[in-house]
Prior knowledge:
Number of strands: 0
Structural class: mainly alpha
Amino acid sequence: MNEFEKENKYLRAKKQVAAIKKFYTSLLYYLVVIIFLACLNYYTNEWSNPWFLWAALGWGIGIVIHALKAFRYMPFVNKNWEERKIKEFMDNDNEPVDNRWN
């Protein structure tokens, strides 16, 4: 393995570690805010109207999507998909450069 490939692997691994770290930070914020909202909900109406669940559900969907991306469980939007789409668009692009944006 040459130096360029090692550097490339290192940069990809570093990028994935940063994405996972960002996910865990988001998860921590989610838990803190949802617990706070649950306590506030209990304090104001003692669970007669559990409105904090709407915030937990909405934000929770975003957290799940973030986890899927961070741990690379999104097969339809991964690096191979991006590369295939770029190649497809490049292959289908037959217009001259001057007329493309007009």
